Amino acid sequence: MLDEAEQQNVDGLIQEGQTVIVYVGYQQSFAITVQRDATFQHRYGMLRHNDLINKPYGTKFNCTKGYVYVLRFNPEMWTKTLPHHTQILYTKDISMIIFQLDLRIGSIVAEAGVGSGSLSHSILRAVAPKGMLYAYDVDPCRLDSVRMDFDRHGFSNMTKLQHRDVCVDGFGLEHCVDALFLDLPTPWLAISSAKKAMKNGLPCRFGSFSPCIEQVQQTCSALHEYGFVDIVTMDLCHRLLRVEEAVLDKPISKEQSELDERSESELIVTTDKQGMKVQKRKWSYLVPNQRQQPMHTGYLTFATKMK
Fold first, then answer.
1. CATH number for the 78-237+296-305 domain, one of 3.60.15.10, 2.30.30.110, 3.40.1790.10, 3.40.50.150?
2. What's the rounded Cα separation, in Å, for the pair 291 and 293?
3. Whole-angstrom Cα distance, residue 283 to residue 263?
């Protein structure tokens, strides 16, 4: 399949040259490339790369002030730990993009506005091992950085990167991609070229990410003009909830008692100040997590080219 992935799957052991995830805590992880005689400094002390080589993924490594876990590389963890050259797409949006573009093994995909390569890694994982990603960006430095990431992560044989402004010069492709995604300031200027790049005779999926609703309006107008159908725009909000428990007095009505017997609550018998036994119910319920949560990231627009 992929050089690095094959090696990881054969023995499940960490090898020199592989990218691994150092899990320090729930809010802190790092991606490092294992190099002999190298060290990695973190808040719990120093991690020696030599100690990682030939150890199983998921191993707990003790440091001077605590411990860390070293995990297998995957696109989701890469999104959390990659160096940001631009603003990136996160997992909540990426998962919907992969689903809406109908990606599968062998799909051929074009992506304009690669940025830091967050979405690109998830696309490649979805279409591997027989698929292909045509990736475009206007910044050659970003492309060079992403190209090095693809090489380290074993995706180089599935990617073709081009320094190109697709809004001006088009994609340079004709009727060969199954799906296409744009993360551009003016995506409506690339709709004509996007349609030309898509396969004939088969339904092909289009997607676009835009932070502002005015961009969405112009993109949807262009999609309608060029004959796309099933045009839909969505805004995903990832809201975390937590479980809390409360002990409430048990209702005495017959109807409510029968309801309690069918519900998932725990009966608690306690003694009051007068020494009388009192029945109460322990309930579990969901409440919003009080931590600050990011909500709006941008609008996702999807459409289908039928002809």
1. 3.40.50.150
2. 6
3. 9
Fold that domain 14-73 belongs to in CATH: Vcp-like ATPase; Chain A, domain 2 (3.10.330)
Closest alpha carbon to 77 in 22, 147, 138: 22
pLDDT of residue 6: 46
Q: Residue 202: count other Cβ atoms within 10 Å of its Cβ.
A: 11
DSSP SS3 for 21: strand
Query: Buried b / exposed e across 225-245, counting CB within 10 Å, b at 16+?
Result: ebebeeeebeeeeeeeeeeee
Q: Which residues of 43-80 are buried (b: 16+ CB within 10 A; e: fewer)?
A: ebeebebeebbeeebeeebebeeeebebbbbebbbbbe
Q: Return the number of other C-beta atoms located less than 10 Å from residue 14's C-beta.
A: 21
16 burial level (CB within 10 Å; 0-12, 13-18, 19+):
middle
Question: Rounded distance, CA 164 to CA 19, Å?
Answer: 29
From the list 129, 115, 43, 128, the residue with the least C-alpha distance to 79 is 115
Residues in a beta bridge with 68 = 61
pLDDT tens per residue, range 156-181: 999 999 999 999 999 999 999 999 99
